[in-house]
Each structure stands twice: as C-alpha cells, then as structure tokens.
Write a structure and sequence with these properties.
heterodimer, A: alpha/beta, Rossmann fold, Helicase, Ruva Protein, domain 3, 11 strands, about 45% helix, globular, B: alpha+beta, Immunoglobulin-like, 6-stranded mixed β-sheet, 5-stranded antiparallel β-sheet
Chain lengths: ~325, ~350
C-alpha cells in the first residue's frame, strides 16, 4: 500500500489544529499537569479509558470537567461508594403507575465523559458493570440494549494511600484501561500559580472550543498516522520482553515478572503511540512517541512477583529496564 | 406406677446379669508372693458361648492393679456351644503391700455392635519391696569392664591405617605432579579493535555498497545511524543503541563536544529518523552529508593514543579517514574530549 506521508502530515496538521485550542482552554483552568492533559487527549483520540492514580487534590476531577466543558459534551461524575449498585450506574426499569408499564431510567453512565471517582471503593459487581460498559460501549437494561454516546471516555480515579475498605480492581479489569496515569504534585511555581488563581475572585471558566464531531473526525485522522514496520517491531519487542524477558537478555528481571502485557497492551501501545504523534501534530510515529507513552500503557499490565516486591521493584522499574535494554530502531 | 418401675428395673438387671454370666473369666497364679516389679504369670481361662467374639487382655487397661507385660499364645477348645480360651498373660505390679489384681476381658455378641466386659475374680498378692541393708557402707561404682579385642576389631584398625596410608600416598603423588608441571603459557589476548576503527571500517564498507545510489535510502540511513550509535556507545559508554535521537543529543552535548559537531550529528540522526519512520527520501547531498558528518564525528572524537597508531586500522579506513579529516579541519571546529572512556583529550 502506498503511503503519502506529506498528505498525512497535511491532514494531521489540519485535523489536529483543535489540540492547541483545547490545551489552551484547559490550561486556563488547570495549571501544570501537562502530562495528564496530554494523556487525556490521547485517551480521547484513542477511544480508550484512563485510570488515574494520585493523592486527593491534584485536579483530577477538575481536569475532566474542564475537558468536557471545553468540548460541548455531557459529563457525569459518579462517586463510587461501598453501597453503590450496578443499577445506580447503568440504570434500571421503573414502574409507571400512569400507564401501568415499566419504563427505562438510564443511569449516569450515559454521558460523553464519566468520572468514576474512587472506583476501588465499590464492590466488584459495580466495577464489573462499569467495565463492561467501557468495553462493549453499550448497556443492557431489561430487554433493551442502549448504545453509549460517542465519544465515551471513562476516567477512573484511585487513591493509592488508603487501602482499607477498598476493593482493588482485578488485573483482568485493569487491563481494560488504555492508560494508567500516575499524577504527582505540581512544581513549586505551578502551586504558587494555583494558589493565586484559587484565592482570586476570577476563577476562569472554560469555553467550548471543540465539537464532538471534531473529535470523531480527529480520531479518523489519528488512525491514518503512519507507523513504520520498525516501530511496530519495536512495540512487539517491548511487550514481548514483559512476557519473556530472557529472550531479550533481561534475565535479571525475569524472576520479578509474574505475567507480562496482553495483546491488548500491544494494541493500546500502538494506538497511544499514534495518538501521541497526533497530539504533537506529526503524521508519523517515531520511537519517542512509544517511549513517551510506554509507562502509561504498561504500568498496570505488568504484574510483579512477591520477589520483586521484596526487592522493592515495581512495574515501572521493570518497564524502564526493558526500555534501557531493547534497541531503538 | 411404682410397681411398673420396679418391674422394669428387675427385668433390665436380670437381662444384663444373664449376659455377664455368659462369659466366665478365671485366672490362676503360681504364687501369691512377689517382689515389686517381678513378672507374674497369670494362667487365664475364658469360657464363652461359641458365637461370641472375645478379645483377650492385651493392654494396661485390661489389668486392674497391675501392668501388662506380654501375652502368650492363646489356645481355644470348643465344647458344644461354648468355647474355652486359655492364655498365659504376664503382668507386673509396681506397688507394695497387699494388692488385688483382676483381669478384664471384652466381648461382643452376634448382631450387636456394643462391647461388653467381664472380669476375673480378684487375686490378692503380697508384694514385698527390695530389702535394703542400710547398715552397710556405700559402695563405689564398678570399674569399666574391659572386653578383649576380637579379630574383626584388629581388621578394622588395619583398614583405617591402610586408608590413611593410601590418602597420604595419593596426596604426595598429586603434589609431585603439580610441582613438576610445566608452567602454562598464557596466550596473548587479541587486542580489541578500537571503536573508531570499527566505525570507520563499517562506514567505508557502507559507502562501497552504494545503497542509496540503488534506491535503498532507508537501509542506507539506518546503517549510517546504527554505525554512529554503536560508535557512541563504545566510545563514550552511552547506551546510544537503546536511546532515541532526542535522548542521545543532550547527552552528547553534555560531554563537552563542539556544539557545531553535535548539531551536525543531530541533523544526521534526524534525517535518518525521517527516512526510517516517515518514508522520507533524502537528497543525494543529504546522504553524502550523513556519511561525511559521521566520519568527521568519529575522526574528531577518537582518542589521541589510538590516533597515533592509526595505520593499524587498515588501508580502507585510512583512505576514508584522510579524506574526511580534511573536511574536519576546514570546518575549524574545536573539540575537547574530556569524558572519553577510551582515551585522552584531543583538540581539532
């Protein structure tokens, strides 16, 4: 198949024009956290979902609210609690006394942007209900199946400091999140700006600068981003190294990996790589794109052994070892 | 009501009494006087209906007043509908004075899982303690008894001595051999080819293959950068093969190399990246520049000590090197290699 990079580049330049406007609009409200904002856009373009891990107060909710507000899209926030039921999430059938029939009451999951706050506070049945909706992009209530709106982006948050009374997401379910982002504290200067912004009377309000159609069109353009076979093989090497580290001269970490990335990891790494190139307004993927997004795609997909925990090794360190060992094309 | 109760009690007692009487246990002894701890043989006889299953005494629990030691072979004789069991049982008593001892026999009846017990009549023993003469003085413990050595003992000693002699002899032989062994001649390790020689050779070979001239732009650019990255990895101990262009360049700049040279290398790597990942077709000049800058970079950064021995690199390399050293000189770039891992400092 003939690929005209110039054409792709021109198309990407055209279709990704909204990225800067969107970033600027979000930047009016969110100070710093550029990585998180960029990954939100990658999730949005890659049609994937995002799991955010960070201590409270790092603007996780504000970020997704701002993104929704900048896009003329619907937004629902669901606070996951231990007594939440699947029906509270997806909806239920209610009896209408007027006409004596059951009517469907759609749940808060029917929105473009969902913030599943503290997803690990609810039991597995509620998590499963959401994750099923994320995967299938449709919800069945009673006898009817309802498609979820497009775009549909779930951003779930987890608090890493309190584990008591929580229901950690099983590995198989975590795999359904395209990216797992770890958010850290803002820098000193950023925090100063945040403080000044919040104590002033003029808290900026984001304006809708992008339509849902723009995003859907951008998604199509993103898929057209050129990925060379060398990059494809590089992705395969990275994911395979998480499964069979010995094959890649990574004997030192082989005992630290319980299991590696699934084929979903390979797919998501490729899509996220393309989306990263798109967000950076490039029509082709370079190794930098893959390395930039690699941690977010793999950190929740590489399970470490007890031995690794004893050695204080985590999945990020393993991914770093892999990146430091595999030759860049 | 009272009458009914007494009637039930009477018949119940009668029933069990009849059962107990079905099995008769008797025991006789040879003497009634023993010392404490002596073994006492009881000649036990059990008479029971032939349909009953009898378990003869076999544990301490079967002896009241004594402890079980052992039991002899049981013999049985059938007399019509009854059986007679005979067995010699050895017991002992660890108490003194007048001790009553009786033996217990368990049995079961057909069609009943319950176990019943029948006792022998009590036998009164007079158990005396060991007589002690406290008037006598204490005696010392006996001397160690000396057992005379047997033939096997002598053989064992002989075997141990023989073994020691053999071990000593083999040890001596091993020492002599080791002492007289000629010293190993260590082969001289082949000197490692310097990184710049390898790189210049590879670049020259690549040039001769005329890849880009035959339309293989991607292969040519890939190989140029592979050679360059491999050289950087060996020369500066930077993991350039595992790093991207944007990671290599800042680290090269930190080595104190000429900014102009680093800029040129960056351009080469970027051109290769475009060619490799964006289907870019470089111009002839860009291809030539990639080669020129690569050779220039290798030449500029080779260690001084190795530069003096350059003829070892081979004629092809020298030709390539001499061609491009001129280019380097023309650029007039200054370069101070203070971080090189293979050699000292070189100024161009």
């Amino acid at each position: 198949m003939q690929v005209n990079i110039q054409e792709i580049n021109e198309r990407i330049q055209q279709e990704s024009a909204f990225v800067d406007a969107l970033k600027m609009e979000i930047g009016k409200v969110i100070i710093g956290q550029k990585g998180m904002v960029e990954r939100l856009l990658i999730g949005l373009l890659g049609d994937g979902h995002i799991l955010l891990e960070g201590v409270p107060g790092l603007a996780k909710t504000t970020a997704i609210k701002t993104l929704a507000a900048s896009m003329k899209a619907s937004f629902h926030r669901i606070q996951f609690t231990p007594d939440l039921l699947p029906a509270d999430l997806v909806g239920t059938m209610i009896y209408n006394q007027k006409n004596g029939e059951f009517q469907t009451k759609q749940g808060p999951v029917f929105a473009n942007f969902i913030l599943a706050d503290e997803i690990n506070r609810s039991p597995a049945k509620v998590q499963s209900a959401l994750l099923e909706a994320m995967q299938e992009r449709q919800v069945t209530i009673g006898e009817h199946t309802y498609p979820l709106p497009k775009p549909f982006l779930v951003m779930a948050t987890q608090n890493p400091i309190e584990q008591e009374g929580t229901y950690p997401l099983p590995e198989a379910q975590v795999d359904r999140f395209m990216l797992k982002i770890k958010i850290d504290y803002p820098s000193r200067e950023e925090e100063l700006a945040i403080m000044r912004q919040q104590i002033s009377q003029e808290i900026p309000v984001p304006n809708p600068v992008v339509s849902v159609d723009d995003v859907i069109r951008a998604r199509d353009a993103m898929h057209a981003v050129y990925m060379d076979e060398k990059i494809e093989r590089y992705i395969l090497d990275i994911v395979e190294a998480t499964r069979r580290p010995r094959d890649f001269k990574l004997d030192r970490i082989s005992s630290y990996i319980a299991y590696g990335g699934s084929p979903r990891a390979t797919i998501n790494l490729a899509i996220a790589g393309k989306a990263h190139a798109f967000v950076n307004r490039r029509g082709y993927v370079i190794p930098e794109d893959i390395r930039a997004i690699c941690f977010d795609v793999l950190r929740h997909r590489v399970a470490v052994t007890y031995e690794a925990e004893a050695e204080e090794m985590n999945s990020e360190m393993i991914v770093q070892e892999i990146l430091d060992t595999i030759e860049v094309p | 009501m009272k009458r009914i109760f007494w009637a039930i009690l009477f018949f119940t007692t009668l029933h069990y009494g009849g059962q107990a009487q079905d099995v008769k246990v008797s025991a006789t002894v040879d003497s009634l006087r023993y010392q404490i701890g002596d073994w006492i043989t009881l000649h036990l006889t059990v008479d029971a209906p032939s349909t009953y299953t009898v378990r003869l005494p076999a544990t301490d629990d079967d002896f009241e007043g004594g402890d079980f030691i052992s039991a002899g072979k049981a013999e049985m004789e059938t007399h019509g509908k009854r059986k007679e069991y005979r067995q010699d049982v050895v017991t002992t008593i660890f108490d003194t004075g007048s001790i009553a001892l009786r033996v217990r026999v368990q049995y079961t009846m057909p069609g009943d899982t319950a176990s019943f017990i029948s006792f022998s009549p009590r036998i009164n023993f007079e158990i005396s303690t060991v007589a002690l003469d406290t008037a006598q003085s204490f005696k010392d413990i006996k001397e160690v008894m000396h057992v005379p050595l047997t033939l096997w003992d002598y053989l064992l000693y002989a075997a141990v001595v023989l073994m020691l002699v053999l071990v000593g002899w083999f040890g001596y032989r091993w020492y002599q051999k080791r002492k007289n062994r000629p010293e190993e001649i260590l082969e001289e390790a082949e000197p490692e080819i310097p990184a710049y020689v390898v790189a210049l050779d590879a670049l020259q070979t690549l040039r001769e293959r005329k890849l880009w001239q035959s339309g293989q732009h991607k292969a040519y650019q890939s190989q140029v950068t592979d050679i360059l990255r491999a050289y950087i990895e060996r020369r500066f101990r930077l993991p350039a093969m595992e790093q991207t262009t944007s990671e290599i360049i800042p680290r090269l700049a930190m080595l104190g190399l000429s900014p102009h040279l680093v800029e040129q290398v960056e351009q080469v790597l970027h051109t290769a990246d475009f060619t490799k990942f964006a289907k870019y077709i470089p111009s002839s000049m860009q291809h030539e520049d990639s080669m020129t800058v690569s050779v220039q970079f290798v030449e500029s950064t080779k260690p001084i000590a190795d530069a003096a021995n350059a003829p070892a690199a081979g004629p092809a390399t020298l030709q390539a090197a001499s061609t491009h050293v001129a280019t380097v000189d023309e650029t007039g770039s200054d370069l101070t290699d203070a971080h090189g891992s293979e050699g000292g400092t070189r100024d161009v």
